[in-house]
Design goal:
InterPro entries: ATP-NAD_kinase_N, Diacylglycerol_kinase_cat_dom, Methylgl_synth, NAD/diacylglycerol_kinase_sf, YegS/DAGK_C. The chain has 323 residues and is α+β, with helices and mostly antiparallel strands. It has ten helices and 16 strands.
Length: 323
Amino acid sequence: MTSTRRAALVYNPTKVDLEALRAAVTAEEQAAGWAETLWLETEVDDPGQGQAKKALDEGVDLVIAAGGDGTVRAVAESLQDSKVPLALLPSGTGNLLARNLDLTLDDVGNSLHTAFQGKNRPVDLGIIRIRHEDQTVTQHAYLVMAGLGLDAKMLAATDEDLKERVGWLAYAKAIVQVLRDKNHLRIRYNLDKRGNRSVRANSIMVGNCGSLPANILLLPDASIDDGVFDIVILRPDGFIGWVQIMVKIFWENGVLRRTTAGRKLMGATKEVRALNYLKGRELVVQLSKPEEIELDGDGFGRAVALKTWVAPGGVQIRVPADA
């Protein structure tokens, strides 16, 4: 007997093999005894928010996001506090949320089995209000990371056609281009209403998750469900500063932190000026001039100020039943 439970699948048509995906969804929904899935295609002007709202209006019990990080972010934005869970069908080059949740990246059948027969895990949602250079204000959600400076400039400089062909290698060219940029961010920030502080930096990143592609652990203490952000400020002073950052990220975070002996050795190392970690629930930032900003790997124009805060357990994510 078919259940009254029904899923909606929000998909980016450029990221999926639609015919194969329809067959796989049909098999999993029937195995789980669910009703026929509602299919909703994203558009250039609506990468998922509108489709997720339509799914909620239809009274679905589950929304599956089939696409990259941008599709997942957009769908999650509309699902906030709805209690309707979000399942991930990873596609694209990043899949940062799926990586941080240790979800399967390249197995459609396994991902759909988790969607229809997995369990819910509440995760934090970042909410951000951006004041743009034209003084308009927009509000968005994000699941992985918000960034100003180096990372946002890198994304803005990335050739999208090249990215489609070679994936994350496309960022290498953009990194070289951005590292030639000698402009620094001049930031005044207030963390958890503790008072204003000023800093000159190359980049500031507010993270809900810690891992990036290539097993890079940027925010080693970040947890997706602890109710706080982990923030990193990069402010290298020349070549030595960049070496300090690389040692911290690739050697200490990437190697030493993974073993007990390594963690003991880390305890003897000193913090470096080039890389500062902070934690908090609310961050207000004012910039001396407009700067590029990114959310979960997508550019959101140029910001002159922002306020971001944590919505604890703001969205439910489907994970394997035995996770």
